[in-house]
Amino acid sequence: MGTLYLVRHGQASFGADDYDQLSAQGQRQSVRLGEYFAFKGIAFEATLTGTLRRHAQTFAGIQQGMEAAGTPPLPEPSAWPGLNEYDSAAVIATVHPEALQKPTTPELYKHHFRVLRQGLTAWMAGRVQPEGMPTYVEFRDGIAAVLDHVRTRHTGNVLLVSSGGPISTAVGQVLGTAPETTIDLNMRIRNSAVTEFVYTQSRHVLLTYNTLPHLDHPDHAGWITFA
Considering its fold, how many domains does the chain have in total? Predict the structure, then answer.
């Protein structure tokens, strides 16, 4: 029996021209998570990431935090395109062809995610197909392939760095949730949050979801972010 640690990337650059870049806060979150893993004595027999820049930067931050605490380097990560996030702009365009304003106010922020939810619902139901993206069935199957790989190839602790969409979809697969529930999980996952699956060769079982043990101290209360 092993444990799969699914980590959402640190805070990226929401609202910027290039979202796929950790902010300074996201970098701090990632390093702090590595320090936490080292403090807990958690070692990993394998690591997996998506191929996005924010995934690689988050992994590097975790490694930096662990090595600063005196732990050996992490295993070289295996890159899986199936762990990449959906293209939120393409999803939004299926239900809102006009470009959204940059979310510079709380109202625009809420509107952005309200429209995104509408697009995700339509994509997951197969009613729309965002340009340049896989179908939802293909997206879901790519994540299932990663979970199958972990179950059949490993027996110990495995670190996986990805995004909110793939992680919430993985949780939905393990729990057998409806698409609407998977979207709810996606909308609530926090930056650098840790989700744990206990796994055997036959299945995964959810142990924890969306936790921030590395930020559970008053000094880090302002480090908790969502986008």
Answer: 2
